Amino acid sequence: MPRGILRYGAGAAAAVAPRSRKRDALMANKFGTDILIQAKDPMKAARFYVKELGFEITDKKPNMISLHGENINFFIERGPALGPVFEVTVKSG
């Protein structure tokens, strides 16, 4: 069965998966391991996540800081604080 990827951006509510016709149950979904946020000062935000949550900075670019944790890849992009972007994979059908 093909799989689709849905991306949710700033202010988006959690999506409800379509119900199965055979069973009135929700379809399973899977969250990706990448999270992207925006901050006016990416390095300042990155220092917070390193100090308070144990992330490690793995790449520094002028407009993007990459951090990695045990189970999450976290990216902080320069820009207005709009909220996180998550990736959700769901079965299509």
Contiguous helical run count? 1
Q: Please indicate the count of domains.
A: 1
Helix content estimate: 10-25%
Please give the order of strands in the largest beta sheet. Answer: 3-6-5-4
Give a structural overview.
- The strands form 2 sheets. Strands 3-6-5-4 form a 4-stranded mixed beta sheet, covered by helices on one side. Strands 1-7-2 form a 3-stranded antiparallel beta sheet, with no helix packed on it.
- The protein has 93 residues and is mostly beta strands.
- The protein has a single domain, classed as 2,3-Dihydroxybiphenyl 1,2-Dioxygenase, domain 1.
- The chain contains 1 helix and 7 strands; from the N terminus they run βββαββββ.
- It is globular, with a radius of gyration of 16 Å.
- The N terminus is likely disordered.
- The N and C termini lie close together (7 Å).
What is the structure about, briefly put?
The protein has 93 residues and is mostly beta strands.
Notable characteristics:
93 residues, 7 strands, mainly beta, 2,3-Dihydroxybiphenyl 1,2-Dioxygenase, domain 1, globular, 3-stranded antiparallel sheet
Please describe the topology of this protein.
Blueprint: E1 3-8, E2 29-31, E3 34-39, H1 42-53, E4 56-61, E5 64-68, E6 73-78, E7 86-91
Parallel strand pairs: 3-6
Antiparallel strand pairs: 1-7, 2-7, 4-5, 5-6
